[in-house]
Amino acid sequence: MSISTSSPLYNLLPIISRFHVDMVMKPIRSSSNGRHFIITSFFFIVFLCVLASINEIRFDSLLRFGKCAFSRSTFHDSSTKNFLIVNSTSSSSNSSSSSDNEMRILIGIPTLPDHYHKRHFLRLIYGIQSPKNAKVDVKFVFCNLTKEDQKVLVALEIMRYDDIIILNCRENMNQGKTYTYFSSLPEMLNNTKGPFPPYHYVMKADDDSYFRLDNLVESLRVLPREDLYYGYVIPCPSMDPFVHYMSGMGYLVSWDIVEWIRESDIPLKHLEGPEDKVFGEWLRDGHRAKNRYNAKWSMYNFPQPPTRCTHELWPDTIAVHLLKTQEKWIQTLNYFNVTKNLKPSKFYHIP
């Protein structure tokens, strides 16, 4: 019988050998003593084997438990450095967060129909990101088309990319566009064939924000998939997501809140005002979003000019906001080395 070097029994072999040598080296004075020695040795070895087998089972169980505990403690140690989880109250929601391996996220970026170049640029930014075990769809959101050229050019975009949502509204920023976006999604998506909910989370993100999708997905994995409100707490010094609201740079809610927005009269009575502030007031007045997650300081404004909402770029970033110029975009993309996977080719040379 071969014994693995990783087995606890392997560590007992020196003890068994020393016992055997000590007994053999002692003079055997009679055949009775010899038989007694053989029988004693046999039962002693059997006892050690049984003991080692039991210990090996316990050792393996202990090892698995230790690995699990270590991995969890390591994650929370790293996450609490940059994140703050506040009031995760729903045990059923927590269990559902791990019931589906593939997370589904919809990111809607409000924009204007004429902003063709901006959309093409953002398609490059998000098209090269492929988060693991997650489906992240980025859609561009605007109101009804008003020009003849838009009807042609936007139609071509839809035919080519299929990433545009046109809402039935007049173009605006703080007069109900956000409400129309969220409240229209259940009717658009619930009737289609596929899983339910169609998305676990829905986000509204600014077009001057850069989201690193892998980090976004990882931050969501341990969070509930019901009654969740996620983002960067305003005002900038605040760390309590229950006092005010999440910044318009990018905030996310679970699908049940999207359905509530469609069904409730509370949002309809309060449509005008800064859209991110108004959104937070809906949830407050409706006693929604018992689970809230403040992603500060992994979400922040671009370092320049410095304010209380900014800090330097760093590796644990989820989102950088206020990328208002091409230079700021380039500086940010260079910092995160987004072109590192560019394959060498004879067709181009990029130093």
TrEMBL record:
Q: Which molecular-function annotations from GO does this UniProt entry contain?
A: glycosyltransferase activity
Q: Report any Pfam family annotated for this entry.
A: Galactosyl_T
- In the Enzyme Commission scheme, what number(s) does this protein have? 2.4.1.-
UniProt keywords, alphabetically:
Glycosyltransferase, Golgi apparatus, Manganese, Membrane, Signal-anchor, Transferase, Transmembrane, Transmembrane helix
So which domain of life are we looking at? Eukaryota
- Do the record's keywords include S-adenosyl-L-methionine? no
What family does this belong to? Belongs to the glycosyltransferase 31 family.
Q: Which PANTHER family did the record assign? A: BETA-1,3-GALACTOSYLTRANSFERASE PVG3, BETA-1,3-N-ACETYLGLUCOSAMINYLTRANSFERASE
Quote the protein name from its UniProt record: Hexosyltransferase
Q: What is the native source organism of this protein?
A: Cinchona calisaya
